[in-house]
Design brief:
By secondary structure, the chain is mainly alpha-helical. Helices cover 79% and strands 0% of the residues.
């Protein structure tokens, strides 16, 4: 789609802010970028094709320097269970134009309560008991909405990782998400929008955030901010589904 200067500026701001979120919390470019671009009248597939290369780029630089710290058991499980769910969801979007905002927001509410200190241990035990089903739906939700990130965040929070270990594994999973989506779109001959300018903007803000901000966020604040991000997205999706 042809963009005027004002729209290009808005897109650049969206990418900059969502990159700051991803650098700090492990999620952001797809989580915030997708609904923001939809509000700028991008189609879902246009938003996907613009954001996925940027997400792939940033995610790689988040986990690659510390690849030895990856939880390869989790990544293997993620590939085996979540990616088939993603594939089914994305194919439904392409061929049926399916969107399930209410279902996704309901899962995000579960993700939010899973992160609360007062969350029922029964809920956590239930998710872990049906872990394969949860991870499949996580991939499916990401395929149909690009918003599986909070579910990924919630699932990894049950692992008890340190802040840095958590960020490495979230970014690796996001890299797999983005790579899988790009491969599927390429195989379906969907038009991809690759903007070097937006990638450079994202890279600049990632470096600034990673250098100046990440080390200043303590674990308690880190956890609270992620929970707040999830709750904001729940509210956004519920309002959008009623519009």
């Amino acid at each position: 789609m042809e963009l005027d200067f004002q729209t290009n500026l808005f897109v650049a701001i969206i990418i900059a802010l969502s990159t700051i979120s991803q650098a700090a919390f492990g999620v952001g470019i797809l989580l915030w970028g997708t609904p923001a671009l939809l509000l700028l009248n991008y189609s879902f597939l246009e938003a996907l094709s613009l954001l996925l290369p940027i997400s792939l780029f940033v995610s790689f630089f988040q986990f690659a320097p510390k690849i030895k710290e990856l939880d390869f058991n989790f990544i293997g499980q993620f590939l085996k269970i979540s990616i088939p769910g993603l594939t089914i969801g994305l194919l439904l979007v392409v061929f049926v134009q399916l969107q399930l905002n209410v279902v996704t927001s309901s899962m995000l509410l579960i993700a939010y309560f899973m992160r609360r200190n007062r969350a029922s241990s029964l809920l956590r035990d239930l998710i872990l008991k049906y872990d394969s089903l949860f991870m499949f739906f996580m991939g499916f939700a990401h395929g149909i909405s690009n918003l599986g990130g909070p579910l990924l965040v919630a699932r990894l929070s049950l692992k008890g990782y340190s802040k840095n270990h958590y960020r490495i594994n979230v970014s690796a999973a996001y890299f797999v998400f983005a790579a899988s989506q790009l491969i599927i779109l390429f195989m379906l001959s969907e038009k991809l929008i690759v903007s070097v300018s937006y990638i450079l903007i994202s890279g600049f803000f990632y470096l600034i955030t990673n250098t100046l901000l990440v080390s200043r966020i303590n674990s308690k604040l880190f956890d609270s901010l992620i929970s707040s991000l999830i709750l904001i997205m729940v509210i956004f999706l519920l309002i959008r589904s009623l519009m």
